[in-house]
Amino acid sequence: MAVPALGAGLRRCGAGLGRRAPWKPVLLLLSPPTFSTSCARCAKDRRLRQKRAISERQLTRYFVDHRKVRVVGGRGGAGGHSFLSEPRKIFGGPDGGNGGDGGHVILKADQQTKSLSSVLPFYQGCHGQRGGRKNCYGANGAYVYVKVPVGTLVKEDGEVVADLTQHGEEYVAAYGGAGGKGNRFFLSNENRSPTLCTPGEPGQERVLHLELKTTAHAGLVGFPNAGKSSLLRAISRAKPAVAAYPFTTLNPHVGIVHYQDYEQVAVADIPGLIKGAHQNRGLGVTFLKHIERCRFLLYVVDLSVPQPWVQLQDLKYELEQYDRALSERPCVVIGNKIDLAESRINLPLLREQVAERVIALSALTGDNLEELLWHLRELYDTYVKTEQSRGQTPVKW
């Protein structure tokens, strides 16, 4: 048998896998590796897995903006029934403690939660424990916290009972029942050995309707195929679906515009509206409610269509019919698709017909996006100053 050369080492493929293999001389020019790479089962895949993109159709299953929930508070623990009996103290009297209170069901607004899809149809608080001997009280039931998105509206029998608009804001959806009294509680001069103890009370039971309204600083409002999703892709890192057919966007998308002073402006892409949307035509009222939370509006108009100012008039009419206060909010008109020849002809005509400021840009090529970003920051600063002057806290992202 030949002797291996100097610097050669011994390595066996499949070592540690329960399989014996013959020793083979291998020439090692460098230091031996810590693991074997000659076998596919021993090799390690160090490549990072990329996050799979979710299509708009798949996103429809995950985005839920309304949910019916039944909540029940925990039942209180029953009171204890016992008498103290110790050496030299045979007739010590009653010593049954009170039962613990049932746990509440609490709705908590969480900024990381973006949909009501994770909310279950039923929640119940934890029950309180029974009272023990030697005047020991039962433990209270633990609270059950339900995380909901910021901007969740809580309704009961058609009436609004809570509006969770701030991160960390809580609302007790169902109170737990009170714990029962032990026989120690009923001790008196007239009754020195009470045997009475009360059971715990049942928790509160309610049926609530949760409704999500997207909270954002600016809202992109426009007809289908006006270029709202393309514009949101151009100014933020959001990735809404873009295609050459109507109603590509089926769910609201929120993109964050970052500035150099670390301020962040949230822009919501509302699905396209049509004539009669306030009468629940098309996507209708289902997504008109998401515009109510926006502090200022960005009307996106397609400049390549004939008479683009008619689109703006129809958009304002639909918003006024749904909520007249929407027409009074600060707004700006965005003329999209300026890269087309028809758009350059319609732009002067649009500015003559519209009293608001018109910003002409192209979401496809990125032309004149800087003007939109500067004006968007001006609207945001005005909103912050207005909220601070009223003594309210502006929404921050």
Q: Residue share in helices?
A: 10-25%
Give the low-confidence spans: 1-18, 26-48, 276-282
Beta-strand level of the residues, as a percent range?
15-25%
Overall mean pLDDT:
79
- What Rg do the Cα atoms give? 33 Å
Structural class comes to alpha/beta
Q: Give me the number of helical elements.
A: 6
Note the overall shape: rod-shaped
Strand order of the largest sheet: 12-13-11-14-15-16
Order of helices and strands: EEHEEEEEEEEEHEEHEHEHEH
The largest sheet, given as strand count, sense and whether it forms a barrel, is:
6 strands, mixed
Report the end-to-end length measured between terminal Cα atoms.
74 Å
* Quantity of strands, as a count: 16
Protein described:
- This protein is α/β, with parallel strands linked by helices and 397 residues long.
- Helix content is 17%, strand content 22%.
- It has six helices and 16 strands.
- The strands form four sheets. It has a six-stranded mixed β-sheet, with helices on both faces. It has a five-stranded mixed β-sheet with strand order 5-3-10-7-8, with no helix packed on it. It has a three-stranded mixed β-sheet with strand order 6-4-9, with no helix packed on it.
- The protein starts with 7 loop residues before the first strand and ends in an 8-residue tail after the last helix.
- The model is unreliable at 1-18, 26-48 and 276-282 (pLDDT under 50).
Give structural attributes:
disordered N terminus, alpha/beta, five-stranded mixed sheet, six-stranded mixed sheet, 397 residues, rod-shaped
Sequence-ordered SSE layout with sheet pairings:
Layout: E1 8-11, E2 24-27, H1 56-62, E3 66-72, E4 105-110, E5 122-124, E6 144-149, E7 152-156, E8 159-164, E9 170-174, E10 205-212, E11 218-221, H2 228-235, E12 253-258, E13 264-269, H3 285-288, E14 296-302, H4 308-322, E15 331-336, H5 341-353, E16 358-360, H6 369-389
Parallel strand pairs: 3-5, 4-6, 11-13, 11-14, 14-15, 15-16
Antiparallel strand pairs: 1-2, 3-10, 4-9, 7-8, 7-10, 12-13
